[in-house]
Design a protein that fits this description.
The chain is mainly alpha-helical. The protein has helices spanning 22-41, 47-54, 58-66, 95-105, 118-132, and strands at residues 3-5, 12-14, 79-80, 87-88. It contains five helices and four strands; from the N terminus they run E-E-H-H-H-E-E-H-H. Bound molecules: zinc ion (2 copies). One zinc ion (ZN) binds at residues 6, 8-9, 11, 20-21, 23-24.
């Protein structure tokens, strides 16, 4: 059994794959349920309104968003892309930056990227051509 300090409340707990103590885990599930229920009825609420209505701190709400557990309304993005600062509804990067990062990280050939369109492939081919000349 591995003992860890809970990153949220600092107390010692037995690590079971979730990096939170049982009390914080239960609290987090409660916050998550409250957020989900509120956003279902109020998909266009602002971050402040959501925080007030659910009692969940804005930074906790943003953490849920970054983890992709909840998604803000398309019309009212609460997050910014960590790369270009563009408003995004969930995760850490906007779709364009996510794509660029994937291209930078995955240097292996095409084929294992089923989500890519022909347009992307041509674009990459152009870049390779330019790099060589
Ligand atoms: Zn804790
Ligand atoms: Zn971006």
């Amino acid at each position: 059994m591995e003992l860890r300090n809970c990153p949220r409340c600092g107390s010692l707990f037995a690590y079971t794959g979730r990096n939170l103590c049982a009390a914080c885990l239960a609290q987090e599930e409660k916050e998550y349920d409250a957020l989900r229920a509120f956003l279902k009825d109020n998909p266009r609420a602002s971050l402040e309104e959501t925080s007030e209505a659910t009692g969940v701190k804005p930074e906790r709400i943003l953490k849920f968003l970054r983890e992709g557990r909840i998604v803000a309304a398309q019309e009212a993005p609460w997050l910014e892309c960590e790369r270009c600062g563009k408003p995004i509804v969930a995760g850490r990067f906007c779709p364009e930056c996510a794509k660029k990062l994937r291209q930078e990280l995955h240097l292996e050939g095409p084929g294992d990227r089923p989500d890519r369109s022909d347009q992307d492939r041509m674009h990459v081919a152009d870049l390779i051509k330019k790099g060589k000349s």
